[in-house]
C-alpha cells in the first residue's frame, strides 16, 4: 500500500510540474522597451555581410540552441525583483536570456566570482544563472581605469579588432583620424575636454539635421569636434553645435530609472554623411527594429570599427559607473555579446555607436545605441527609446 501511495504522489507531482503557472496579479512588462517575440525571424534566410578575418566567430550556446520559448513570462517574473537582486553583495544587474535548450532564464550579473550566496536559485518557475561581467562602466571610462575588472580592465585585445577591421584601407586608415567632410558615421568625435566617442548616425527633427552620440561624450561643451581632442582634433574641427542632451540621474537608485544616454548636435549641410566608411555596413535603414533575444547585430565605432554580435539579454537593469566616480541605474536595456571570442563587441571610445540588425530582411535596421560595457558584454539603449526621448528620426535608407 505504501508503495502504491508513493507512486500516486510521484505521478501527481510530475503532472503538476508540466502545468504552466499563471502570472501573479500585477505582474506587467508593459513598460519594457524590448520585444519579446520568440520566433526571431525563424525561417528567414540570413544574408550575412561579415567583414574581417572572423575565423573565431561563433555564438556560444546559440547556434545549437533548441526551439526558443517566448520570454514574456520571465520578463514579468523578473519585473518584481530587479532591485531586490541589486541589494545583494556584488550584484550589478539582471536580465532575461535563453539557455541552450531555448528556455527563458533570469541572468544575474555579478562583479566578482559567483556573487552573493543569497542569490536565489529560481524566481518563480525560472532558473537563475549568475554571470561574472565585472563592474559595468560607461564607455568614457578607459580600460586601464577599470581596475576592479582585472587585467586590462577586462578588455580584450585592445588593438586587434581595429587592426583586423581596417587592414588595407587607404588613408585615413583609422576611424580615429580626421575625415573629409561630410564626415562618415562611426568615427571619432568628442568635446574639447572629454574622452573620445563615436558619431552614431545622422538624425533629423523636422527640416534640421543632427549628429547623434552619447550624452556622456559631450557633457556641456557646445562644439562637437571630429576627431575628438584625444585623437588630435581641436575646436577648428567642429562639425556641429550642441542642441540637446538627456540628463543622467546619478546615485539615486532604486528611485530613479534612466533609460537613455544620448545627445544630438545640430549640423550644417555637408558636414555629416549618413553612411559608414567604405569597410562598414553603409547607411542604416530609416526604419527601426525591436531588440529580440539572439538577434544578429553589428556596429561601427571609433575604437573597434565594425564588429558583429548578437543580443544575449533583454529587459536588463544595471548599475553603470561613470568617469566621475558616480553611478546610475538603467532599466530596459539590452546586453550584446561578440560573435568573435577574441575581441569585444565594443571598447571605450565606441560610445554612441549605432547598433543595427545584421542580415536577413531587417538588415541594417537600427536596434540600439552603445553606451556601456563590462567583461564580455556591451550594453545598449533601445533605439526607439532614444528617438522618442529626443523626438528625432534616423536619416537612412528606406529600401
Summarize this entry quickly:
It contains six helices and 19 strands. The protein has helices at residues 2-18, 72-78, 82-86, 160-166, 215-218, 383-390; strands spanning 91-98, 104-110, 122-123, 126-132, 136-138, 188-189, 197-198, 201-205, 208-213, 223-225, 238-245, 263-267, 296-301, 305-321, 327-338, 354-357, 366-374, 377-382, 393-394.
End-to-end distance? 72 Å
- Rg of Cα set: 22 Å
Structure class? alpha+beta
- As a percent range, the share of helical residues equals 10-25%
Principal-axis shape equals: globular
Mean pLDDT, to the nearest integer, reads 84
Highest-level CATH class of the domain at 160-249 and 260-267: Mainly Beta
How would you characterize this protein structure?
Among the domains are: about 55-130, no CATH class; about 160-250 and about 260-265, Thrombin, subunit H. It is built from six helices and 19 strands. Helices cover about 10% and strands about 30% of the residues. The protein is of the alpha+beta class and about 400 residues long. The radius of gyration is 22 Å and the shape is globular. The longest helix has 17 residues, at about 1-20. The model is unreliable at about 1-55 (pLDDT under 50).
Task: Describe the protein's topology.
Blueprint: H1 2-18, H2 72-78, H3 82-86, E1 91-98, E2 104-110, E3 122-123, E4 126-132, E5 136-138, H4 160-166, E6 188-189, E7 197-198, E8 201-205, E9 208-213, H5 215-218, E10 223-225, E11 238-245, E12 263-267, E13 296-301, E14 305-321, E15 327-338, E16 354-357, E17 366-374, E18 377-382, H6 383-390, E19 393-394
Parallel strand pairs: 2-4, 5-14
Antiparallel strand pairs: 1-2, 1-14, 3-4, 5-17, 6-7, 8-9, 8-19, 9-12, 10-11, 11-12, 13-14, 13-16, 14-15, 15-18, 16-17, 17-18
Amino acid at each position: 500500500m505504501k508503495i502504491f501511495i508513493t507512486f500516486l504522489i510521484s505521478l501527481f507531482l510530475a503532472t503538476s510540474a508540466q502545468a504552466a503557472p499563471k502570472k501573479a496579479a500585477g505582474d506587467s512588462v508593459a513598460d519594457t522597451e524590448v520585444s519579446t517575440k520568440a520566433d526571431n525571424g525563424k525561417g528567414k534566410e540570413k544574408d550575412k555581410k561579415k567583414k574581417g578575418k572572423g575565423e573565431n566567430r561563433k555564438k556560444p550556446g546559440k547556434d545549437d540552441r533548441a526551439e526558443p520559448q517566448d520570454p514574456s513570462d520571465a520578463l514579468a517574473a523578473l519585473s518584481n525583483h530587479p532591485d531586490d537582486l541589486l541589494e545583494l553583495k556584488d550584484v550589478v544587474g539582471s536580465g532575461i536570456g535563453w539557455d541552450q535548450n531555448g528556455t527563458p532564464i533570469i541572468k544575474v550579473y555579478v562583479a566578482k566570482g559567483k556573487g552573493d550566496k543569497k542569490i536565489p536559485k529560481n524566481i518563480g518557475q525560472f532558473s537563475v544563472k549568475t554571470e561574472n561581467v565585472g563592474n559595468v562602466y560607461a564607455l568614457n571610462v578607459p580600460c586601464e581605469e577599470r581596475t576592479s575588472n582585472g587585467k586590462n580592465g577586462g578588455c580584450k585585445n585592445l588593438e586587434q579588432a581595429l587592426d583586423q577591421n581596417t587592414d588595407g584601407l587607404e588613408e585615413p586608415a583609422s576611424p580615429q583620424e580626421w575625415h573629409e567632410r561630410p564626415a562618415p558615421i562611426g568615427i571619432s568625435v568628442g568635446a574639447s575636454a572629454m574622452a573620445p566617442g563615436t558619431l552614431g548616425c545622422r538624425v533629423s527633427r523636422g527640416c534640421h539635421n543632427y549628429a547623434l552620440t552619447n550624452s556622456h561624450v559631450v557633457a556641456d561643451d557646445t562644439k562637437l569636434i571630429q576627431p575628438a581632442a584625444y585623437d588630435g582634433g581641436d575646436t577648428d574641427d567642429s562639425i556641429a553645435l550642441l542642441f540637446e542632451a538627456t540628463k543622467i540621474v546619478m546615485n539615486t537608485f532604486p528611485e530613479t530609472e534612466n533609460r537613455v544616454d544620448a545627445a544630438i548636435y545640430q549640423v550644417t549641410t555637408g558636414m555629416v554623411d549618413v553612411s559608414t566608411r567604405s569597410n562598414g555596413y553603409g547607411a542604416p535603414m530609416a526604419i527601426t527594429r525591436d531588440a529580440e533575444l539572439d538577434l544578429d547585430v553589428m556596429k561601427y565605432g571609433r575604437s573597434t570599427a565594425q564588429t558583429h554580435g548578437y543580443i544575449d539579454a533583454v529587459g536588463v537593469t544595471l548599475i553603470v559607473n561613470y568617469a566621475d566616480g558616480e553611478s546610475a541605474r538603467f532599466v530596459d536595456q539590452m546586453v550584446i555579446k561578440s560573435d568573435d571570442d577574441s575581441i569585444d563587441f565594443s571598447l571605450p571610445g565606441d560610445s554612441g555607436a549605432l547598433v543595427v540588425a545584421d542580415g536577413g530582411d531587417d538588415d541594417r535596421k537600427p536596434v540600439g545605441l552603445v553606451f556601456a560595457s563590462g567583461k564580455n558584454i556591451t550594453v545598449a539603449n533601445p533605439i526607439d527609446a532614444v528617438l522618442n526621448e529626443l523626438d528625432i528620426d534616423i536619416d537612412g535608407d528606406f529600401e
